[in-house]
Design brief:
alpha+beta; Tetrahydropterin Synthase, Chain A; 2 domains; four-stranded antiparallel sheet; 13% strand; rod-shaped; disordered N terminus
Length: 201
């Protein structure tokens, strides 16, 4: 009877040990499977998403250098190379400014010096300064018109005929307009004057 009592507890202990071993084995297999899956995804991740690739790109610093070159307009300040296709020459990059234009409404009409003929001229302006320059031109248009008409009236007929004389007149008018603006606003700012029409009668 005593021997039978000793055998029974051993039978009860044996299934508990088997269950524990089975559970631990299953957990180990699940852990190995999960670890393998994570490792697989890390190894097959595209290079641009890999943390290692990001670290290398940051260490290289080429992106920061390119950004600085673009901001500065290239190494020498006003030239840089734009990305080009295979076999193509790089396009030179220059710092660009916005040009504002203004054309006076109506013509400038006056007699010419030493002549019975009169001339009608249409004038346009250009500046790369801010819009304040054009606003100043509009504000002081009466004074500018008077100065330009006086200047044109000083010219003789031969002095306004031909391309070279027209260019000379454009420069004289530009100087006259800048002079008026400087007197009234302390700044000229007109960089080009264009004679858009010229009629002599």
């Amino acid at each position: 009877m005593a021997a039978d009592a000793e055998d029974k507890p051993e039978k009860k202990k044996l299934p508990i040990v088997k269950i524990l071993i089975t559970v631990l084995g299953a957990l180990a297999l699940v852990g190995v499977g999960a670890g393998g899956t994570v490792l697989y995804f890390m190894l097959t991740k595209p290079p641009e998403e890999s943390p290692l690739a990001i670290v290398i790109e940051k260490k290289d610093g080429s992106d920061e250098k390119d950004a600085k070159d673009k901001k500065a307009g290239g190494k020498d300040g006003d030239k840089g190379a734009a990305p080009a296709g295979p076999g193509a020459k790089p396009l030179p990059m220059k710092e660009q400014f916005v040009t504002s234009y203004f054309e006076f409404p109506g013509n400038f009409t006056t007699n010419l010096r030493g002549s019975k003929r009169f001339v009608q001229i249409s004038i346009g302006l250009a500046t790369q300064y801010d819009k304040k320059v054009i606003e100043n031109v509009q504000k002081h248009e009466v004074a500018i018109r008077a100065e330009v008409l006086a200047l044109i009236a000083e010219q003789s007929e031969p002095e306004i005929v031909g391309v070279d004389n027209r260019r000379r007149m454009q420069n004289l008018i530009k100087d006259a307009i800048n002079r008026v603006l400087t007197e009234r606003t302390e700044f000229g700012g007109i960089e080009n004057v264009y004679i858009t029409a010229l009629v002599m009668q």
